[in-house]
Design brief:
homodimer; about 250 residues; alpha/beta; Rossmann fold; five-stranded parallel sheet; 5 strands; about 10% strand; globular; disordered N terminus
């Protein structure tokens, strides 16, 4: 049984790492998170990824069917979906990517009924916020942090009401300090991350801490550009790390 | 620590399942496999996927760089690569897909120096054999089982000599009884699977049992068509299951 022991030991280390090492220090906290982070999937459940270009990842928007590789594209959504389909192979899960490049919270709101509620997701993962800030910096938008927070909260409230039993997974918006990201983004981007976290907590959602994950992953050998060339759009290595952290945090794969 | 225990417990079950339940019955066997199935990856290691259309999966052949999403395409190679990059995020692994649709053993041999040996893989995964049979059935090829076995063995011997320290992962060729696959494939296809297994054993390779995996996955709710519409090319669910089994069998992710 040595193989199992070794594999399990490494796995437990990785879980600890994904939880920011919290389980090494405060086991009680991890236990408390467990109940909130491990929904049980059932046969035929829908898993839906919503967001902007990071989720979109160049997907084929003509393919609307579940588990379509081109529609799921080559980013974290595809990587998570393929892991879920492999781990829960008998459940016939239906995985969809409905991210659209350039989207902000009001853009999600405008297409929410058709692109989210109509799909009746069992698990709904949302990553939104970087364009709410980026488009403001480039003069294309004037939404405040408060508008982001209230709009995001209203979207989730509407979702929980329309889709009973949905498990919400809110992904922390993130940037890396390279490419298009400079000091003009701060401190407002940090305020928007904090707003997203409050929204997630208010809705009882699972929170996936992508910003702290990337911050911890930056080393001399793996600088910001290794994870996201322009500071916003992840490389394949960045998407892969996101998928790993999403799966560990939710406990689904 | 409840979360860890639960996750680990499920993980050990999955490892058991991937090993055909062997660890439940003969722990000694699993221990013996462990040494052979868990290479330690190091910084900058190359992971290469070779094969036919199942590996190719419509990849972009103009992109030659490592970890390129379009070059890895949307099949099991991409799913495994993304998992490896996520789990071993600090190692800067270099993952390549060099599968080419329609390839048989002699086709691999003809392009082996440029497409495999020159890349100096630390882990080399090969899935080859379905076209060696299919093209024979359609009258385009006349290779025998013995030629398949000898050609495959020679290819591996050449590889081990040219790439010291390479870990070979041989994937079992498989078909599902639907679509293009009918009784005319048997018993020769089974003989070719057995030949591939002998070749893997002779080379000290890790053996990934895709045929028994798919056979075990077929149920009333998930018939052969759910895993591979034409009996040869996996659906996304099929690729996802292959990736999961490959990772569990090698112990790499």
């Amino acid at each position: 049984m040595e193989l199992q022991k070794e594999t399990l030991s490494r796995r437990s280390l990785l879980i600890g790492a994904a939880a920011g090492g919290a389980c090494m220090i405060t086991p009680g906290l991890v236990h408390a998170q467990a109940a909130a982070t491990a929904p049980a999937l059932a046969a035929g459940d829908v898993v839906l990824f919503q967001g902007d270009s990071i989720t979109d990842a160049g997907r084929n928007k003509d393919a609307a069917d579940a588990n379509n590789p081109g529609a799921l594209a080559g980013g974290y959504a595809m990587m998570i979906a393929s892991r879920l389909l492999g781990v829960h192979s008998g459940l016939r899960l239906q995985c969809y990517n409905r991210g659209i490049s350039g989207n902000k919270v009001p853009d999600l709101d405008a297409r929410w009924q058709a692109d989210t509620i109509a799909l009746k997701p069992r698990v709904l993962s949302i990553l939104i916020g970087v364009n709410d800030m980026w488009h403001k910096l480039s003069g294309k938008y004037d939404g405040t942090v408060d508008q982001y927070e209230k709009g995001f909260a209203a979207l989730l409230a509407k979702t929980v009401q329309a889709v009973p039993g949905v498990t919400l997974v809110i992904c922390e918006p993130f940037v890396l300090r390279c490419g298009a990201v400079n000091e003009t983004w701060f401190p407002e981007f940090d305020q928007r991350r904090e707003a997203a976290k409050r929204v997630a907590e208010l809705a009882g959602a699972i929170w996936v801490p992508f910003q702290s994950m990337f911050d911890a992953a930056i080393t001399a050998d793996t600088p910001p550009e290794y994870w996201a060339g322009d500071g916003v759009h992840p490389t394949m290595a960045g998407h892969a790390l996101m998928a790993k952290t999403w799966l560990d945090t939710t406990g689904l794969g």
